[in-house]
Amino acid sequence: MNAKSNEMPWKLTSPTAAFTLILVAFMLFLGLRAHLDPFGAAKAFGLPLVSPEDAGWLHTKGGRDLAIGLALLALVVTRQRLASGLFVLASVLMPVTDALTVVSHGASLGFALSVHGSAAVYGVALGAALLKRPSKAKQSAP
Fold it and tell me: At what angle do helices 56-77 and 81-91 cross, to 10 degrees?
């Protein structure tokens, strides 16, 4: 079996790379915000903090977001388009779980869908675009 047959070219100037890097930047922002502005981050997430002592869950989430951003950045830098697509699609479970969590703790369904639902939709659309094979004409273009 030819190992090259599964490779998909990925230029860092392509729209999929740009949208993936936007996701990377957003995940890094969320991770840093959780540590630098826990009250603002918690409110934006949908589970406001009552006191700083309650920020343990948020620091965990912030660490998760930083790790996701850095892992996805590594996949982009090494031009691993297929792996990036699979990673993004697998990660869609997180905003879905986040939406269910905030709704079960009193946030409105509208809030959960606008914040976490939109993240899930972005992930599905981006993951599908990353997994889509470029047309032969685009592959052979200089």
Answer: 160
Q: What is the dihedral sign for C-alpha 90, 96, 100, 102?
A: positive
pTM of the predicted model as reported, rounded to 2 decimal places: 0.87
pLDDT in tens, 91-142: 999 999 999 999 999 999 999 999 999 999 999 999 999 999 877 655 555 5
Structure tokens at 31: 């991770």
| C-beta separation of 66 from 28 below 8 A | yes
**141 falls within a domain:** no
| Dihedral pair phi/psi, residue 133, rounded to 5° | -75, 135
What one-character DSSP code corresponds to residue 105?
T
Does residue 3 fall inside a structural domain? no
